[in-house]
Amino acid sequence: MTPDGGKDLKGRLARLTLSRQLTSESSLQASLARQYSDTGSDLLGGVTSVTQATGASPSTIVVTEDVYYSKRGDLAYVNRGGRFGYAVRGHVRSDEHQQQLNLNFDERGGRIECTWLYSGGPRIGFYTEYVKRTFSNLDQRDTAHNSGVAVTYRLTSNVNIVVEGARFEQSSTADSNKNDFVDRRVMLVLAYSSGQLYTVQSRR
Questions:
Q1: How would residue 55 be classed by pLDDT, with cut points 50, 70 and 90?
Q2: Which of 21, 66, 139, 159 could share a disulfide with 155, CB 3.0–4.6 Å?
Q3: What is the pTM of this model?
Q4: Is 11 left (phi over 0), alpha (psi -120 to 50) or beta?
């Protein structure tokens, strides 16, 4: 593999995804990946639907043009029964940069998501996540704790309105505290689709 303007890259490339249906409402999912990536791909991978309380939060991503070899494992338990659903997710990750070796890191993270379909009305979603990133060649550890809640109202079969509040917090053990911040956001989103959006219903 040779990226534009870069040197030859060598390493095992693999992706494996396993999913087991435990009950009619719950499942266990696991995935492993070894691949080359870059910052742009990571940022695009975090883009998700605005009609869910997702808070895609690559808050610890360092923007760089460098290519890195990434190893990642994910494990998730998902339960989507009735009006209430939830998911518990965890991951481990290790990145090895080709040029900027100070950016090499090991990462551990977890996330909890909940969704509640209110009787005959809106969908309420909540998430909270925690990520710890330890840099291999630096005496530095970054942590991020993000959470948010969103309420989705179905105006018509094609139009939803979403009200979302989120809090993003990051801290670092680096000598400079320039990476420390707390960001609070409130968003109002009008979502339109040419096809039908979600329909509130219960399977119970």
A1: very low
A2: 159
A3: 0.76
A4: left
- Taking only the tens place, the pLDDT of each residue in 141-181 is 999 999 999 999 988 888 889 999 999 999 998 877 677 88
Residue 170 lies in a domain: yes
Q: Sort 182 into a burial class: Cβ within 10 Å, 0-12 / 13-18 / 19+.
A: exposed
How are beta strands 68-79 and 84-97 bridged, if at all?
antiparallel
Q: Please give the Cα distance from 191 to 68 (Å, whole number).
A: 36
Strands 123-135 and 141-154: antiparallel
Q: Which of 141, 147, 174, 27 is nearest to 87 (CA)?
A: 27
CATH of the domain at 36: 2.40.170.20
Q: Which residues contact 49 (CB under 8 A, 6 or more apart)?
A: none
What's the total number of domains in the chain? 1
